[in-house]
Structure formats: structure tokens, C-alpha cells
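Much of what follows relies on a compact textual record of a protein's fold. An example makes this concrete, so a full record is given next.
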Amino acid sequence: MPVMASDDFSIHADGCDQFDDGMPISSLPDEVTSIEDLDCECWSGFDSLDEIE
């Protein structure tokens, strides 16, 4: 399940250590259309958005 960081609203994979506090979200924001739209290195283990949702 994706997690939105509370400090900068970036999206991270559950278990990512790049953010201190966050809130689980049920789906990715509409502006995320490909895995490349997710900036954190925690997404490097995923090949596509289909693996996340």
C-alpha cells in the first residue's frame, strides 16, 4: 500500500525509510501515470503501476 509523507506529500512504498511520518493511501494520485512519476528509490523494485495497485 502506498504511503504519503506528511512533510512533503511525496509517495512512498510501505516500509520505505525515506520519510519520518506518513499516512497510508488506498490509491495513487491521478497525476501519477507511470512508475517514473514516483521519485523515491523505494519504487525501483516495481516494474509498473499494476504491481502497486
